[in-house]
Specification:
heterodimer; A: alpha+beta; five-stranded mixed β-sheet; 12 strands; B: mainly alpha; 2 helices; flat
């Protein structure tokens, strides 16, 4: 056995934190008492991001739930699961979406982070994308990554090694990877002269017209125990039938909603129109209702700020 | 302490927000030229 230290070892005043953005990994030592905001500001400063209002820090808590870090609370008080080096890990991700990428996103770094996040969601099929649009999007992703198409240096197979198309699209057709590549290449050659940022912005402009883009889906049941989806978006709340995440069955814009409230697993949407019935639904977990309300407040806040002149200047 | 715990857990399982009231009667303080922090979580 080691000798006992003469005095109790002093508790360290800081702790290690790892933050991953979609294109970088950052490591910090955070003061023991640091708030979520201190960490968030540190990340934004480090990557030079000023359009901060879309983003948040996501983590896994000690019970394995995915949560967003609260900015006004100490990081240490938020039940973060730490690895064996007692490092707390976070993902820096967009929590909210712009209504119009071309109009709202100013900084290249913001556009790039949105591009990476949306591309990942499309390739992992979290966002449905039809085949033709998938090919066009792939061609912009290729332009962004490799620059101009060059007949001389282009080697067939280059694109096949990249993750470019959602698997569902590939499975839908009897086509070889070479055939897909040829289709993408034709579009790619067409984008000559386009910078990385322009290509990524074109990608985002197409992607934002996909029905599922920018929707946070939650599994819910109504009073009749029918399974449905609730979608929280920049513009309000949508209710979807279980089998159709594309077209909402009912939509509540923010201006149409008087109250949103939950008590335990029961959630109520009260319309402004007093003749309209309340929409009552049930979720599986109180935690989910908290997240739904949190996303409502955040999305509505941005919705109002967009409509006030000069309130979103850098 | 039992009472305190019950009260706390009750509050923690409830939440409410009024979008229409925010839009029409709650003009926010404008922080000109100051970066806006992201929306705060207001739940317990």
């Amino acid at each position: 056995l080691d000798k006992m230290p003469p005095f109790r070892k002093k508790k360290s005043k800081s702790f290690p934190v790892k933050v991953c953005t979609l294109d970088a990994e950052l490591e910090f030592n955070l003061e023991w008492k640091a708030t979520g905001r201190a960490l968030f500001d540190l990340v934004c400063r480090t990557i030079g991001l000023r359009e901060t209002w879309y983003f948040g820090l996501q983590y896994e808590d000690s019970k394995g739930f995915i949560s967003w870090l609260k900015l006004d609370k100490k990081v240490q008080d938020q039940n973060i699961q730490k690895d064996h080096h007692s490092t707390a890990s976070f993902m820096f991700l967009a929590k909210f979406c712009p209504e119009d990428v071309a109009e709202e996103l100013v900084q290249e770094v913001t556009q790039h982070l949105f591009f990476l996040q949306v591309k990942q969601a499309i390739l992992s099929m979290d966002i449905y994308c039809p085949p033709e649009a998938s090919v066009l999007l792939a061609s912009y992703a290729v332009q962004a990554k490799f620059g101009d198409f060059d007949e001389e240096t282009y080697k067939p197979g280059l694109l096949a090694s990249e993750d470019l198309l959602p698997q569902r699209v590939i499975d839908q057709y009897q086509m070889t990877l070479d055939m897909w590549e040829e289709r993408i290449r034709v579009w790619y050659a067409d984008h000559r002269g386009m910078s990385r940022d322009e290509a990524e912005m074109e990608y985002l402009k197409i992607a934002q017209d996909l029905e599922m883009n920018g929707v946070n889906y939650f599994p819910i049941t109504n009073k009749k125990e029918t399974e449905l989806w609730l979608g929280v978006t920049a513009l309000g709340l949508n209710i979807y039938e279980k089998e159709n995440k594309l077209q909402p069955k009912t939509t509540f814009t923010w201006a149409e909603i008087r109250h949103i409230s939950f008590d335990d697993k029961k959630f109520i949407i009260k319309p402004v129109d007093k003749n309209a019935p309340n929409f009552v639904f049930f979720s599986q977990k109180v935690r989910m209702n908290k997240l739904i309300l949190d996303l409502c407040i955040g999305n509505h806040d941005l919705f109002m700020r967009r409509r006030k002149p000069d309130s979103m200047e850098l | 302490t039992v009472l305190v715990n019950i009260a706390r857990s009750k509050r923690a399982t409830r939440g409410t927000y009024s979008p229409s009231a925010q839009e029409f009667c709650n003009p926010r303080v404008e922080l000109d030229h100051v970066l806006k922090p992201p929306p705060e979580e207001r739940l317990i």
